[in-house]
Amino acid sequence: MSGPVWRIDDEDGDPDLTGAPSPLLVTVRTLGAALARTWSTVLAVCCLGVLVGLGVLSMVPHPVSATATLLMVAPNPDDASAMTTDISLLQTRAVGERVIAELDLEESPESLLSTVTATPVSNQIMTVSVDGPDDDEALRRATSVVAHFLEFRAEQLRTVSAGLVAGYERRIASLQARVGELTREYDRASAATVDQVRLSDIVTERAALGTQVTDLQRSIEDATLASDAAVSATHVIDEPAATPFGSRRQVVLVGASGGLVGGVLAVGTILLRTLTSERLYRRRDVASALGVPVRVGVGTIPSGGRLSRIWTAVTRGIATVLRGHPRRWSEPLRSRRREALVQGLRAALPSPLGTPEWDEHVGGAGARAGERSGPTSLGLAPMDRAATGATVLRALADRLVERGGRVLLVDLTASGALVGTRATEPTEAPVDGPGALTLFRPEGDPALTPGPLPGPRRRGPSPEGLDRLSAVWDEVDVVLALVEVDPGLDLDVLATWVDQVVPLVTAGRTSRELLTTIASLVAEAGVDLPFALLEGADRSDRSSGRGAPSGEEPADLPADERPGEPVADATRVRAVHAR
Fold first, then answer.
1. Where would you find the membrane-spanning parts of this chain (predicted)?
2. Greater confidence, 5 or 545?
C-alpha cells in the first residue's frame, strides 16, 4: 500500500471568496498621528499628574520619623557579626517593653518595634529611625528607644563579661587547688628519700600550672577591660531629630511619579480610543463614508471664545517653553483656513456673478429676455460645529455681496447659529458692497418647516410665514442656508429649501455609520451632494480624499494602508489514499 497522495482540486472553488481585502483600520501611522495630534493633551495630563502627586504628598496624612546615629563599639573589634547582634538586641521585646513602660504607650511591644528601623552604615555606625504620629511623639519615642537600647546592650555585654570572668575564676580556683596539692607532695617528697626525677616532675608541673593561672588572671582583666571599653565607648553621635517631611528628593520622586502615571494614562487612553473608536480623521475615510470627494480639508479653526483664548494662551506658553517660540495660533492662520473653506464652498456655485456663464445658469434661455428661473440655492450642513459653519457661510455671502450679488441667508439650525434663535422676517442686513444681503429664520422648528421650493414629496402648502419670503426669494441671486442634518428627522423638507448640500465634517467628531446614513438620506430626499469639506484635519494625513477610479488603487495611500493583492479563488485540498 502506498502512502497518501495530496491532490489540489480547484474546480470547486468558491467565487464568493474573491476580491481584495479591506485595508487596515488602525496602523502604526494612525497611532503615531493620534499621539502627535494630542501631544499637548498628554503634556497637560503629565503636568496635572505632577500637581496631583505634590498635592497628595502635602495633604495626605503621613508618618513622621525621628532618626539618631549611634557609634557601636564591640568588645571584639574583629567580630564580623557584632553589628547584626546589636540590631537583633534592638528588636527584642525587652527594649519594647521598657519603652512602653516609660512612655505609658497603649500598644504592644511588637507594634512599637515595627516602627523602629535600624540601618547599619558601616561596621561601627548605625542609624535608628522611629516613626510616630507627629514630630514631637516621634522624637520622644526615638529618644526613649535609643536610651533603653544602649542600656540593655550594656547590661548584656556586662552579663557576658561577668559569665566569662566567673568561668575563668572557677578555672583558676581549680588550678590553684592542684598547685597546692603539688606543693604538699613536694614537701613530703623532699623530707624523704625519693627519686629525684619525681621531684623534678612535680616542680615542672607546678610551674606550668602557675603559668596557666597567671594567663587566666590576665584574661579576666582583658575581658573586663574590653566589656567596660565597649560600653563606655558606645554613644550617640547624632541625637534623635525629626526627619523633615517633603525633602527635595522626596518632592522630585513624588512629582516625577505623578507625571509618569499621568502620561502613561493619557497615552494609554489615546491609544485605546484610537484602536476602538469609529470616528474618522482622514480625508480618505470621510470621502469613502459619504461617497463624494473631500474638496478642502484644513486644520482646526479656533472658535475665538473665552475658553479658546485661554487654551491658546496655555498652548502658546507650553510651545514657547519646549520650542523656544510660540505656537502659531494667530489670526492670519485662522483666516487662512477659513478662507480655504469659503473658496471650497464657493466651488458648489456656478461661475462668478455677472458673467455670461452665471446668467446662463440662473436664467437659461430666458435670461436674455429678462426672465428668471429662480436663484441658486446651496446648503451647508455642519456635522458638529455649527458656529464654524455659520462663519464660513457668512463669509461666502460677504464675498458674493462684494461682487454685486443679492444673497439670502437662511438659518435652519435649532441653535440659531447664523441669525439667532428668534424667528425673523426677511430682513435687510447692512453690507459693504454693491449687492444686498437678507437674513431669515423660519418660525417654529426650522428642521420641520418646509421652504418655498416644491420638493419631491412635499405635503401641503407652505406655512403662512413663508408667503412673505416668496417675494424676496425670487429677487435674489443666491440662497445660502445653514442646515442641520439629523438622521432621526425627515430630510424631505431639506429639498424644499436647497438644491444641493455640502457637509462640513469635523475630523474626529463623526463616525462612518453616521456619514453613510446622512449621505443616503440626502440622496433619497433628492438633494445633490457634490462634495464635502473637512475641518480639523490632521497634519499627518497624507490622503487627498478625492477618491480614485473604480478598480484602481489610490496613489496617495501609504504603503502600510494599501489594499493587498486580490485573493485567488478558494481551493479545496483533498487527501486521496492510493491503494
1. 39-60, 251-275
2. 545
How many domains, the chain? 3
- Supply 574's cell numbers: 483533498
On whether residue 5 sits in a domain, the answer given is no
Q: Is residue 560 in some structural domain? A: no
pLDDT, tens digit, for every residue of 442-477?
877 787 888 888 765 555 445 555 667 777 888 888
One domain for residues 356 and 263 = no
Find the domain containing 470 and state its range. Answer: 280-540
Domain boundary among 277, 299, 322: 277
Q: Is 199 in the same domain as 332?
A: no
For residues 303 and 268, state if they share a domain.
Answer: no
Per-residue model confidence as pLDDT tens digits over 314-347: 666 666 666 555 555 445 556 788 888 888 888 8
**Predicted pLDDT of residue 92:** 92
Mean pLDDT of 424-434: 70
The SS3 assignment for 61 reads coil
**110 lies in the same domain as 44:** no
Q: What is the pLDDT of residue 329?
A: 46
Q: Among residues 450, 441, 367, 437, which one has the least CA distance to residue 395?
A: 437
Q: In whole angstroms, what is the distance from residue 477 CA to residue 243 CA?
A: 82
Shared domain for 230 and 378, answered yes or no, is: no
Is the same domain home to 289 and 273? no
Say if 566 falls within a structural domain. no
CA distances from 309 to 20, 41, 319, 329, 455 (A): 48, 16, 15, 10, 43
CATH number for the domain that contains residue 108: 3.30.70.1130
| 122 and 91 share one domain | yes
> Quick one: which H or E segment has residue 294?
strand 294-298
- Residue type at 124 in one-letter notation: Q
CATH number for the domain harbouring residue 502: 3.40.50.300
Q: Tell me which residue has cell 463624494.
A: 292
Does residue 445 lie in a domain region? yes
Number of CB atoms found within 10 A of residue 83's CB: 19
List C-alpha distances in Å: 253 to 66, 202, 223, 247: 21, 79, 50, 10
Q: What's the helix, strand, coil split of the chain in %, to 5?
A: 50, 15, 35
**Cα distance between the two ends of the chain:** 5
- Cut 0.70: pTM above it: no
Q: How far is it, in rounded angstroms, from Cα 407 to Cα 436?
A: 6
For residues 334, 335, 340, 342, the Cα torsion angle rounded to the nearest 10 degrees is: 120
Kindly indicate the confidence band of residue 182, based on its pLDDT and cuts at 50, 70 and 90.
Answer: confident
CB within 8 Å of 298: residues ≥ 6 apart = 337, 340, 341, 534, 535, 537
Using alpha carbons, select from 428, 418, 406 the residue that is nearest to residue 382. Answer: 418
pLDDT digits (tens, 9 = 90+) for 7-25: 445 444 444 444 444 454 5
Distance CA 220, CA 458 (A): 122
